[in-house]
Design a protein that fits this description.
heterodimer; A: about 110 residues; mainly beta; six-stranded mixed β-sheet; 11 strands; B: about 110 residues
Chain lengths: ~110, ~110
């Protein structure tokens, strides 16, 4: 069974204080790992897809990295508008069609 | 602009009543999904469909039903058999393969 564990559950940062969110996964043949941002009361917004260990992707203050067992979402010099819940999901690729399995998310609060 | 539209945004259900949540997409995506989100539980898959007139049960399909008569539409019915329907419901769509999902803005269902 595919499993995704995100840590910490919640993180509070001061504006400008860089940090990382962790996503550990167990999957039968990774087809893709996905990061989403979700604001309260809204649907998740797609951020990144990573396909293989060693891959990195960046968008503004966010950088996602991938190893064979986990992914990190690095947030550099965050601003209050980065406050949101960040979701990680994996898609297995060993057999036929598979859907995304999501972690429970990390709730990030950035204070001015 | 292409996207996914969920309606209504808020829905109230009386005990013993069936209600239907609407999901429409104009992204020309083949696959569509329904997730349920509860506090502290992450996203759980209810049903998904890869092609018109075909759909599969997800992890928590009991008490729910779907149809896929058109590529653009994937309505979800919450039946009276679903004993704890209060939750945030998210519809998503994607190309078939290792692609990220595009989510709608969600429907919050409350039992009164």
């Amino acid at each position: 069974e595919d499993q995704v564990t995100q840590s910490p559950e919640a993180l509070r940062l001061q504006e400008g204080e860089s940090s990382s969110l962790n996503c550990s996964y167990t999957v039968s043949g990774l087809r893709g790992l996905f990061w989403y941002r979700q604001d309260p009361g809204k649907g998740p917004e797609f951020l990144f897809t990573l396909y293989s260990a060693g891959e990195e992707k960046e968008k503004e203050r966010l950088k996602a990295t991938l190893t064979k067992k986990e992914s990190f979402l690095h947030i550099t010099a965050p601003k209050p508008e980065d406050s949101a819940t960040y979701l990680c999901a994996v898609q297995a690729g060993n057999s036929g069609y598979s859907t995304l399995t999501f972690g429970k998310g990390t709730m990030l609060l950035v204070s001015p | 602009d292409g996207g996914i539209t969920q309606s209504p945004k808020y829905l109230f259900r009386k005990e013993g009543q069936n209600v239907t949540l609407s999901c429409e997409q104009n992204l020309n995506h083949d696959a569509m999904y329904w997730y349920r989100q509860d506090p502290g539980q992450g996203l759980r898959l209810i049903y998904y469909s890869q092609i018109v007139n075909d759909f599969q049960k997800g992890d928590i399909a009991e008490g729910y039903s779907v149809s896929r008569e058109k590529k653009e539409s994937f309505p979800l019915t919450v039946t009276s058999a679903q004993k704890n329907p209060t939750a945030f419901y998210l519809c998503a769509s994607s190309k078939v393969g290792a692609y990220g999902y595009t989510f709608g803005s969600g429907t919050r269902l409350t039992v009164v």
